[in-house]
């Protein structure tokens, strides 16, 4: 059953009899409360209640303000009110609500009070038993005492987040979930297409495994496409009833440009009477936003970054102060060395606006939300932190600064205004520059049409799988096949190959492709004979302290000096590591509209005191943006082609109809006209323009103008850089953006180059400086080859290195060393770089595969690039090559981003920049420098202490159980019984490992030693060691470089040594070890 505006909706989404029948299914108390509180159900509620009544899983798809939450909850509340609670206390919790936002969870708990109290009063009025329905919240903000109470005395309805559900399932608290009958997933569209959603999908399957029968799932989603994909995510094994009534939501959208000409700033502001000339767009935008805020009851101003949110918020308050007092705040004179990312605030009080984003403390965010809902706060400047369905009843205007990142995001944001059923949502978009104006026009057009981008569920994210496998095996011993079956029940892993599953288990069990991975601690034990996997000691703690999917950015917590952080008080927010490194004690910065003076900077936090009214720096944060989706890029290209083909008056009519004001429409027409005059062409969905010109240094710049977005341009730029390196031997600087690709070709590198067969006219000639050697022929690729070129190149990119770090952390290979404390980002990068150095040699290592998959599928749109190359081959998209005396208007916008990217490139971390290693002859260098032998320079006592440390002979490294012996054998290699005892081992522990098929007895160099079973094939192939009977086949496969592995391990676990010492230990001749 699909409740839509198509044929299947007849009789389903109409109000008459259907409304009465849907309500008739409820108890008299529930029905009485609802009819007293509301005029009638919404179409979404009618359809949802009928589908829920039929007992199936349900997906309700409707815009903001359609009553979806009550649609999901009311049937559950009615049942809880009518039925007595279970006799078994641990089965009392029957409804589990999962929200992607902690704030949304709190909001829902508050909104449930009305129906709960109403149904209770109506029951009393009707003479029915008074229901006692308890509601609890479990999130990262829940105090420890409340968490313990939830575990021992579960509520009837538990509201939680995906991360907290994972923590509950990975602890004894999971017993409180054994009675769950219904799971409500709110804002499911926000997680389904992410790794966070894949993580949640596995958690839901783990929950079902706990229950006597799988819980019914009810998903709530804003308008999403394709609906079937979200339904498959919600419940891949059962049929899902999709309730999607026709949307009656009305939007009043406009795009406003407050200056007559965005290309020539400095003219008078749009509002009459404003003095002075202003060389930036920002003063004009800020004043116009201030006017709008003061003309409305409550306004949310959305910005696309935290830094911009802070800046706008402070400027709005400065404008309000100057208007209220008639006094101008003192101009800020920032020191010259202040980095470009940091701005400054002049200490104005928060008269008009407050900031709301993820780096403001939860307490401050809660206060801001309450003041906004109550109408006490005129405006909030927010990022996506307020994008999802928190009820903001008083908000009557949304302002978006810069084009929304996507159509779906724009609809969600504007939907915060007029949140009530039937209300009109009013939104105003202020673009920053002319290129942004074009995207804003396209996005608002598509918002009116409801043409949102399609969503895709990630396929087989192996880092998420690794984390959940550690958590599951930490709680129970699993049959390997049954565990795989459970994993495949989750939609993101439905197609998981058994080979990938096995490789992840191998990695977690310590069976690595090389002994160089020995420092990675195994997290589970895989008994290959019995076919079972069990978590090692410490696995459960690791999962709950380092679990989750949101990358750790190494942010510094900001706390009030003198407050006790252990009691949860005093947290102000958080700052980017780079900003903190630039700050000093005594500096003042602004966060959340309040000025703070730095009192101390410790290893993991910044201690501050309030500095009201004192001017200070504005903070900045570094983050990732995926860029324009291909669908939006195609629409933008079509818009440029269609508007560009119209006469000016007809073009103006279309733009005004799309919601652009007069100056915005005039700016678009002028922008396209100037581009055509400069280049002769405007890039669009059927024309890609390759523009070449000289820069200020006389070097060639080549700009590929394309509307298809960064997700297509990023892999294209990778392939292009590889081609230029191969053809010309140049390390070309390539920058990609939403609107194209920029290349810089240093003239000195080009002189004398042979021009290859890329252009028949120039073939066989030598570069003479008169024309760029790179043209349209260089940027086109064979559609059958481009995917492989990108795949080959991605492993050497900075993107791959950063994604590898995040994937390794997500897979718990790089856990937090001190849970609860900050791990500096540079340390994370350093540890990840060391792992990557080893892992990059093994393409089958699961986390290498996952990092590549994430780049190719989640970040890049390689199929889109392949399709584009096919369109170029088939002449459906033409390449046009032009040489201009100066950059065209479109090129100037792109070059601004190019400068911003490379301005601080020298500061980018080495771990995430690939550079050719310098190869040196160490002996020749030592002779040249007159250096003594290394051993002669080292203190003998220091060497002895190092040896004891590496050999685990120090007191602090003595083993305490059989797991410690397993680690010894894995890290140090085969050891005798005496050597184990010397390190604190009980003789029985090795026998315990032998019985578990995790250790074997072998003879090496004439003596019996204990060895890890993973070493069996290595010892046989390197030393000819006879293996005992019963070693699993997986550990007897041929090893690539067995002797090299053994010698490398010997080197890692000893101080300076001779080859003779290593040979003696392995029972080999010196000639053999020298030859290895």
TrEMBL record:
Helicase ATP-binding domain segment(s): 49-242
Q: Which InterPro entries match?
A: ATP-dep_Helicase, DEAD/DEAH_box_helicase_dom, Helicase_ATP-bd, Helicase_C-like, Lhr-like_DEAD/DEAH_assoc, Lhr_WH_dom, P-loop_NTPase, WH2_Lhr
Give GO terms for biological process: DNA repair
CDD domains to which the protein is assigned, alphabetical: DEXHc_LHR-like, SF2_C_LHR
Q: Name one Pfam family in it.
A: DEAD
**Keywords, in A-Z order:** ATP-binding, DNA damage, DNA repair, DNA-binding, Helicase, Hydrolase, Isomerase, Nucleotide-binding
Which branch of life, at top level?
A: Bacteria
Per UniProt, residues of the Helicase C-terminal domain are 284-470
Q: Name one GO molecular function term.
A: DNA binding
Give the species this sequence originates from: Streptomyces himastatinicus ATCC 53653
The molecule here is called Putative ATP dependent DNA helicase
């Amino acid at each position: 059953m699909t409740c839509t505006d198509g044929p299947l909706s007849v009789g389903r989404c109409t109000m008459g009899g259907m409304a009465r029948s849907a309500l008739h299914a409820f108890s008299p108390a529930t029905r009485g409360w609802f009819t007293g509180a509301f005029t009638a159900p919404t179409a979404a509620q009618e359809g949802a209640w009928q589908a829920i009544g039929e007992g199936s899983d349900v997906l309700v798809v409707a815009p903001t303000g359609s009553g979806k939450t009550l649609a999901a909850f009311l049937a559950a509340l009615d049942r809880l009110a009518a039925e007595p609670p279970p006799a078994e206390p641990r089965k009392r919790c029957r409804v589990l609500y999962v929200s992607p936002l902690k704030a949304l969870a709190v909001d829902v708990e508050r909104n449930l009070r009305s129906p709960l109290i109403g149904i209770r009063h109506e029951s009393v009025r009707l003479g029915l038993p008074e229901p006692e329905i308890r509601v609890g919240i479990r999130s990262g903000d829940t105090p420890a005492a409340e968490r313990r109470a939830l575990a021992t005395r579960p509520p009837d309805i538990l509201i939680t987040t995906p991360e907290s559900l994972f923590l509950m399932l990975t602890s004894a608290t999971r017993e409180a979930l054994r009675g769950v009958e219904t799971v409500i997933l709110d804002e499911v569209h926000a997680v389904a297409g992410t790794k966070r959603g894949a993580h949640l999908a596995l958690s839901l399957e783990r929950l079902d495994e706990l229950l006597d029968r799988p819980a019914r799932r009810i998903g709530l989603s804003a308008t999403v496409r394709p609906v079937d994909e979200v339904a498959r995510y919600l419940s891949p094994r059962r049929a899902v009833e999709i309730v999607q009534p026709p949307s009656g939501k009305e939007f009043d959208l406009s795009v406003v440009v407050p200056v007559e000409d965005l290309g020539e700033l400095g003219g008078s502001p749009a509002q009459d009477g404003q003095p002075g000339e202003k060389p930036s767009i920002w003063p004009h935008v800020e004043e116009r936003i201030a006017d709008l805020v003061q003309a409305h009851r409550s306004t949310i101003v959305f910005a696309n970054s935290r830094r911009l949110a802070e800046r706008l918020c402070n400027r709005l308050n400065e404008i309000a102060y100057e208007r209220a007092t008639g006094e101008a705040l003192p101009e800020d004179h920032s020191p010259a060395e202040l980095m470009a990312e940091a701005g400054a605030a002049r200490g104005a009080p928060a008269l008009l606006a407050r900031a709301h984003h993820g780096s403001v403390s939860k307490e401050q965010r809660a206060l801001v939300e309450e003041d906004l809902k109550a109408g006490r706060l005129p405006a909030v400047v927010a990022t996506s932190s307020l994008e999802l369905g928190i009820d903001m009843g008083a908000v009557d205007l949304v302002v978006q600064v810069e084009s929304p990142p996507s159509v779906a995001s724009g609809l969600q944001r504007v939907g915060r205004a007029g949140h009530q059923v039937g209300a009109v949502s009013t939104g105003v978009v202020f673009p920053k520059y002319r290129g942004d104006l074009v995207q804003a026009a396209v996005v608002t057009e598509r918002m009116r049409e409801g043409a949102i981008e399609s969503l895709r569920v990630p396929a087989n994210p192996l880092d998420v799988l690794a984390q959940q496998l550690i958590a599951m095996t930490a709680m129970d011993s699993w049959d390997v096949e049954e565990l795989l079956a459970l994993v495949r029940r989750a939609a993101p892993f439905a197609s998981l190959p058994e080979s990938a599953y096995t490789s992840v288990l191998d990695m977690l069990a310590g069976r690595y492709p090389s002994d160089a991975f020995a420092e990675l601690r195994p997290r589970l034990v895989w008994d290959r004979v019995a076919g079972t996997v069990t978590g090692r000691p410490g696995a459960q703690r690791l999962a709950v302290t380092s679990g989750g999917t949101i990358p750790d950015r190494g942010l510094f917590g900001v706390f009030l000096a003198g407050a006790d952080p252990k009691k949860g008080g005093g947290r102000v927010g958080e700052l980017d590591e780079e900003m903190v490194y630039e700050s000093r004690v005594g500096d003042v910065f602004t966060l959340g509209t309040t000025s703070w003076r730095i009192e101390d900077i410790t290893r993991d936090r910044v201690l501050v005191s309030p500095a009201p009214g004192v001017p200070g720096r504005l903070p900045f944060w570094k983050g990732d943006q995926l860029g324009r989706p291909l669908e939006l890029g195609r629409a933008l290209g079509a818009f440029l082609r269609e508007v560009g083909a119209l006469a000016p008056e007809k073009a103006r009519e279309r733009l005004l109809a799309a919601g652009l004001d007069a100056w915005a429409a005039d700016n678009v027409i002028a922008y396209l006209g100037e581009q055509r005059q400069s280049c002769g062409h405007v890039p669009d969905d059927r024309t890609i323009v390759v523009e070449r010109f000289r820069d200020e240094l006389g070097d060639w710049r080549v700009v590929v103008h394309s509307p298809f977005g960064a997700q297509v341009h990023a892999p294209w730029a990778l392939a292009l850089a590889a081609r230029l390196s191969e053809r010309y031997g140049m390390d070309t600087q390539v920058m990609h953006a939403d609107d194209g690709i920029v290349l810089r070709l240093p003239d000195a590198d080009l002189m004398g180059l042979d021009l290859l067969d890329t252009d028949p006219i120039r073939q066989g000639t030598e570069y003479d400086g008169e024309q760029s050697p790179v043209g349209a022929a260089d940027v086109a690729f064979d559609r059958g080859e481009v995917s492989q070129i990108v795949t080959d190149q991605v492993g050497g990119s900075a993107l791959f290195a950063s994604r590898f770090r995040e994937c390794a952390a997500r897979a718990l290979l790089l856990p937090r060393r001190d849970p609860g404390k900050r791990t500096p980002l540079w340390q994370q990068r350093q540890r990840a770089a060391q792992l990557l150095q080893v892992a990059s040699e093994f393409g089958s290592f699961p986390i290498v595969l996952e990092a590549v998959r994430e780049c190719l599928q989640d970040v890049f749109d390689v199929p889109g690039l392949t399709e584009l190359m096919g369109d170029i081959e088939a002449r459906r998209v033409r390449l046009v090559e032009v040489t201009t005396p100066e950059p065209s208007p479109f090129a100037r916008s792109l070059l601004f981003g190019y400068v911003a990217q490379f301005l601080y490139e020298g500061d980018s971390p080495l771990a995430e920049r690939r550079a050719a290693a310098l190869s040196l002859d160490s002996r020749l260098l030592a002779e040249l420098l007159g250096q003594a032998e290394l051993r002669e320079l080292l203190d003998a006592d220091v060497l002895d202490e190092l040896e004891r440390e590496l050999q685990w002979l120090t007191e602090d490294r003595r083993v305490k159980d059989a797991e410690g012996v397993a680690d010894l054998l894995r890290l140090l290699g085969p050891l005798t019984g005496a050597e184990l005892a010397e390190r604190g081992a009980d003789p029985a522990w090795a026998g315990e490992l032998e019985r578990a098929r995790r250790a074997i007895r072998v003879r090496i160099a004439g003596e019996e030693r204990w060895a890890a079973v993973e070493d069996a094939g290595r010892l046989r192939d390197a030393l000819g060691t006879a293996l005992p009977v019963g070693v699993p086949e997986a550990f007897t496969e041929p090893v690539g470089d067995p002797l090299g592995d053994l010698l490398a391990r010997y080197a890692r676990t000893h101080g300076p040594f001779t080859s003779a010492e290593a040979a003696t230990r392995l029972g080999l001749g010196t000639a053999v070890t020298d030859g290895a």
